[in-house]
Amino acid sequence: MSGRKVVKALTKLGFRVVGQKGSHIRLKKKGKERTLIVIVPNHKELDKGTLKSILRQSNTKLEELMKYLVVME
After folding, report:
1. pLDDT-based confidence at 4, cuts 50/70/90?
2. pLDDT value of residue 73
3. Whole-number average pLDDT of the chain
4. CA–CA separation, 37 vs 9, rounded Å?
5. Domain tally, the chain
6. Starting from the edge strand earliest in sequence, which strands make up the sheet with 24-30, in order?
7. Which of 11, 27, 44, 67 has a 20 to 30 Å separation from 73 between CA atoms?
8. Which helix (H) or strand (E) holds 5?
9. Domain limits for position 45
10. 3-state DSSP call for residue 44?
11. What is the value of pTM for the model shown?
């Protein structure tokens, strides 16, 4: 799964791109209690551990992310 696809799926979940430094894209989502900030590397293939960290930071379940990835294909 590429970083670009993950960014697109997260934007559909309410995140917005707020910046990029090198190959790392920064996304932000304001919630009721706190603001979530996620850094996604713009790589062709993300490692499993990196994807797991992105899911944890974005407070998103894998199934929810996959639902938006399938819609894009």
Report:
1. very high
2. 56
3. 92
4. 15
5. 1
6. 16-21, 24-30, 35-41
7. 27
8. helix 3-12
9. 3-68
10. coil
11. 0.88
